[in-house]
Structures are given as C-alpha cells and as structure tokens.
Amino acid sequence: MNRFLTVVFIFLVRLVTAPLPPMRPWVPLGHPDRNRPTCIFTVMCYNVLCDKYATRQMYGYCPSWVLKWEYRRKSILEEIRHYSADIISLQEVETEQFYNYFLPELKRDGYDGIFSPKSRAKTMAESDRRYVDGCAIFYRTAKFSLVYDHLIEFNQLALANAEGSDDMLNRVMTKDNIGLAALLETKEAAWSNGIRPDPSQIHQPLLVCTAHIHWDPQYCDVKLVQTMMLMNELKQLTQDAVGHSFRPGHKADPSHTQLLLCGDFNSLLDSGVIEFLNSSRIAANHPDFKELGYKSCLQKIAPFSDKTNEFTHPFRLATAYTTDVMPYSNYTYDFKGLIDYIFYSKNTMVPLGLLGPVDAEWFRENKVLGCPHRDIPSDHFSLLVELEMSPTYSGLGSNGFIPRR
C-alpha cells in the first residue's frame, strides 16, 4: 500500500471515531448604536458543494457515504437553520435542489428566495438543466421585501464588451460563471435596536449580490475581469435604484448605496480581485491581467484614469473576513485558503460580530486531511456576519422603486 493510501486509510478510521468539532466561536466586533435608529441583521455566505462536484476522484480522502448528497444536505440545512441568518447567500446550489429542497424547506422558516443556474443551463435539455448549479439568495420576509432581482452573466458581458479582444472572447467569454443580485427593501421589523425610525426612513434599499467567480488559478485574469464586470453591473443597478428613490433632479451616487456583496471569489487576499474590491481601484498593468489585451475593452466596463493608469469602481467596500480571523474558508487535502468573502458598504454599515473558524487544534488532533468530513458537509465553511446599517436618506417606500427586471 503506497503512502497516500496508508494516510487515507488512517484518516478513514479516525473519521468514524473522531469527536465532534467544537462549536465555532462568535467574535464580537462592536456594540449597537442605541442613540439612533439602525437596522441590525445577519448575513450568511456558504458554498454548499453541489452533488456533481462531490466525487471520489476529487475527494479521495472522504468516504462515499459522507459525499452522498442525501447525507450532506441534511447537515447543510441544519447549519443554515442553526445560524438563522436574515440574508443567506449560497453558491453551488443545483437547480433541482433549490426548487425541491432549499426553497420549500426555508419557506417554512419564514424565508423567500431567488435563484439562477450558470449560463450553460440555457443550452441544455430540461432533463439535464436541473443538475446545473448556480447561486441563490434567501431573505427573511419579516424584515425584507424583494423589489427586483437581476442576473449577471459574465460570458454575455464579455461578448458585449469584447471590442475585438481575442483574450476577452477566448478566455473570459468561455466561462459561464454568474452573479445574482437582489434589491431588497427593509421593513419596520428590521429596525430592531429599540428606536423606531422616522416613517420616511423605514423602507431603505439594500442591494444584495452573490457571485461565484471562476476557480482555476491559471486564469487570474479572468477572475479579475469577471469581478470588474460584476461591479459595473452593480453600479448600473444602484443608479437605477437610488435614482428612482430620490426626488426628481437629485443625482444618484452609487457610493452612497448600501451594498452587500457575498460569494466564492476563488481569490486570496493578495489577489487583484480582492485588491480591486477593497481599494476601489486596480492598476491597468496589474500582474493578474497577465499583460493580455484587455485594456481597451475594460475601459467600457470600468472608469479609467490616464493620470494614474488605474481602473476604479464607485463603491466603498470592506471585507468582514480576513486571514487574521479566518485563515481558510476552503479546506481540502491539497488547498487551504480564504477565498469566500462578505463585503459591505463601509460608509453605512458596521460589523458587530462574526462567526470564527473551525478549531485548528481539532483538525490537528484528529488528523483531518480535508473536507467534506463526517461533521462538515462542504469543502467550504460558512461565513456569518452581524451588521448594523444606518439609514442613508428619507425613502419613498415601496412605490418609490421602479423594478428594472
């Protein structure tokens, strides 16, 4: 028996007898403001690892019964219900599982949700389409109502903005990743810090987006271009939402929009993707572009400054999770790193606390090679943040929005 098989055998023995992992710690970050009305809510981001990717070829260290969807989905739903977030952002949800499992189950708990599969579903027969994975957003209906939703298809945006770039057509357009956005509106129950807001401020817009960016480390340029297209689409959505909500003649400013951006970005903290999101800018000659021919077509997607040679986006974002708190959100045999994130508008939101990591000592003591595991149903860990949101203006209520989609 070779060394790898020996290690796997030992791992399987330990798997059956291993103790449960300790409860993940709650990391407090701040206290609610009791002097003015604020909206306090929790948000979860979770890549649930869809069934067709959970193969023995990919996860040879994991026994077949642990990989089975019938086993894993119960644990996933139990985890979602345990943390009971007000907004839930999921990736790698199969179409059939959304409509036949997650949606009906979570509706019983007071949620509603939206979903879209990856773009390849459009080219498939109905019998195959149900197995295509995609992104989902659930929201607690007691606190939020849905104004509209919007699908962001990166391959279609690449085609529309290629401007003759072979790299845009051959590298970006061939990847069918998506983003999914929902413009939510707060209800009175969301303002739960004990101070009732002015009636004109109750119905605040909150743009929520989930995304699943391309996975391959060899395509860091594609990841960055997809992220730039995502931010441009969100800019357009916020201009529509804010523009329709303000009085006539008032200039809409996306930087004032309350944005919540969650997802599996398949990118480490030092990547161009996270640099662009965190700093609102990226150099046109950033190494992640790989010196490929994107510059002219990206000027249609993102504002560009000749003076600084940078592309920008208009949002002021911060990530709730860094490696100081969460060393890894993806934990497999051959890769461990933080690639899932929850970004929030830092001028209107403050994190009050977040869910910490699975205990590192438990991994070491039980020789856990990677996940999924008997007690961890995905190769990703869920992220959970409690946020406090301030009103940005006196809203016009539900009738102030004009649905775009």
TrEMBL record:
Pfam families the UniProt entry points to: Exo_endo_phos (PF03372)
Gene3D superfamilies in alphabetical order: Endonuclease/exonuclease/phosphatase
Domain Endonuclease/exonuclease/phosphatase as annotated: residue spans: 45-380
Signal peptide annotation: 1-18
Necessary cofactors: Mg(2+)
The entry's keywords: Cytoplasm, Exonuclease, Hydrolase, Leucine-rich repeat, Magnesium, Metal-binding, Nuclease, Nucleus, Repeat, Signal, Transcription, Transcription regulation
TM stretches of this protein: none
Subcellular localization: Cytoplasm; Nucleus
Superkingdom of the organism of origin: Eukaryota
GO molecular function: metal ion binding; poly(A)-specific ribonuclease activity
EC class (word): hydrolase
Record's catalysed reaction(s): Exonucleolytic cleavage of poly(A) to 5'-AMP
GO cellular component: cytoplasm; nucleus
Entry-linked InterPro entries: CCR4/nocturin_mRNA_transcr (IPR050410), Endo/exonu/phosph_ase_sf (IPR036691), Endo/exonuclease/phosphatase (IPR005135)
The enzyme's E.C. designation: 3.1.13.4
Protein family (similarity comment): Belongs to the CCR4/nocturin family.
PANTHER family: CARBON CATABOLITE REPRESSOR PROTEIN 4, POLY(A)-SPECIFIC RIBONUCLEASE
Protein name according to UniProt: poly(A)-specific ribonuclease
